[in-house]
Amino acid sequence: MKFQQKFTLFHRLLHWIMALAMPILFITGFLRMYWMNKNHITGIIESKTSAIPKEQITDIAKSIREPMWQWHEVFANIIIFSFLARIIYMLVKGIRFPNPFKSNQPLKELLQGFTYVYFYLFVFISAVTGICIEKGFFPQWKEEIEIVHKWGIYWFPIFIFLHLMGIVIAEFSDKKGIASKMIGGD
Fold this sequence. Notes:
The chain is mainly α and 186 residues long. It has helices at 9-33, 38-48, 54-93, 107-135, 142-150, 152-171, 178-184.
């Protein structure tokens, strides 16, 4: 089955909504885990003053990070809804991508298929674990769910690399112009 090459306005809109949401989720997650980590901010405040009790310092650190976290939650909802819309759209339109598990296919299609599987699996796992964290599902596995969710910090750059490599490969093959079609349509 051949991969769909015609990008409708709706298909492109979903692509670009996700392309905007994913880096925002990555950046806010990265900041929360590293530079704006609660313990890091608390440590900085503690090193600058001894007049504020530890509980208050923790509250200050949480307040500093709150707007960033609100952005993370808003864009998580955007990616979840656009992801679901994309899956439904693909099912309704019959859009398929190369099956990476099919034997005897060109390396390019094999890599393309695995990149799609990787993307859908990555978004699905990130969305499900994020929902579990936000809603408090499976409290007995909270720590494990958070660990898996934080793997997104590593999955995302790998996906971006694979996606950009796929674009470069496509531009130098029989799919020349695929990037401009995704931007401006057919």
